[in-house]
């Protein structure tokens, strides 16, 4: 197993931090999977490094990375850049993915000699599943899209938060794990409201010309369980794989204390999807 970190500087103080995981041998190329974390997530959350290692062991090179405004800085595990979290939009996240893809295609990342750039897939967990669809549907280099407990609609903001924004110019959400009040600035909600059609995930998948795997835990939040069904209805060619007893994080936790049967099932079905698609 080889793992190497990288940093892609952006404008101002924004950076994309990531890691490449591969088991490819000298001269070998493998299909590449880009992994997107979700809302209040980060690349080193709980099981994510383990997932990258496990997929690499099965022959899929993985890039896991932090979106540049996810709120986690050099610490890699703490929300120590909340001012960035507060202005993070889908537009910024898709732009991050475009920067990352350019670095992949121009072979600027570590271990790039092992990337099969004809076989690039994008996967996202939770809100990251929405990013995977928004980016993957439009980018010609993406061969397939995978969502793990992914969203089916991008508006995550209720009326109370919207009213708080109108009243004070800033809203807050609680991070139940850390106890932090995490800011949401007006541009985040405006990005959603001003791009209703462009961010219509069901419409995006209905027009796909590439493969889609939907991995969904049966014990996840109801709106996501329902959303998985809507994604499948919108794109009947999609593979919808239900994982019995799986919650939103496949029955794992942060800090990571070990894998679960549900997580292993998600890893297995994901690697099979990538490797079988690659052979076609």
TrEMBL record:
Residues 31-165 form the AB hydrolase-1 domain. One of its GO terms (molecular function) is hydrolase activity. InterPro entries: AB_hydrolase_1, AB_hydrolase_fold. Keywords: Hydrolase. This is Alpha/beta fold hydrolase. It comes from Brevibacillus laterosporus. The lineage of its organism: Bacteria, Bacillati, Bacillota, Bacilli, Bacillales.
């Amino acid at each position: 197993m080889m793992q190497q970190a990288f940093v892609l500087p952006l404008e101002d103080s924004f950076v994309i931090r990531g890691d490449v995981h591969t088991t490819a041998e000298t001269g070998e190329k493998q299909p590449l999977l880009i992994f997107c974390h979700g809302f209040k997530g980060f690349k080193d959350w709980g099981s994510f490094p383990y997932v990258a290692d496990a997929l690499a062991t099965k022959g899929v090179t993985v890039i896991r990375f932090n979106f540049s405004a996810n709120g986690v800085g050099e610490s890699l595990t703490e929300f120590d850049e909340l001012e960035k979290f507060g202005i993070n939009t889908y537009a910024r996240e898709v732009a991050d993915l475009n920067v990352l893809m350019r670095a992949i295609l121009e072979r600027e990342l570590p271990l790039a000699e092992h990337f099969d750039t004809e076989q690039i897939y994008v996967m996202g967990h939770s809100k990251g599943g929405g990013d995977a669809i928004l980016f993957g549907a439009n980018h010609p280099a993406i061969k397939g899209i995978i969502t793990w407990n992914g969203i089916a609609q991008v508006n995550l903001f209720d009326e109370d938060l919207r009213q708080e924004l109108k009243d004070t110019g800033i809203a807050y959400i609680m991070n139940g794990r850390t106890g932090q009040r995490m800011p949401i600035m007006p541009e985040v909600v405006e990005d959603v409201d001003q791009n209703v059609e462009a961010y219509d995930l069901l419409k995006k998948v209905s027009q796909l010309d590439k493969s889609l795997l939907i991995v969904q835990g049966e014990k996840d939040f109801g709106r996501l369980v329902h959303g998985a069904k809507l994604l499948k209805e919108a794109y009947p060619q999609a593979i919808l794989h239900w994982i019995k007893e799986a919650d939103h994080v496949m029955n794992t936790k942060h800090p990571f204390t070990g894998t679960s049967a549900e997580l292993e099932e998600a890893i297995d079905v994901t690697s099979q999807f990538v490797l079988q698609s690659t052979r076609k």
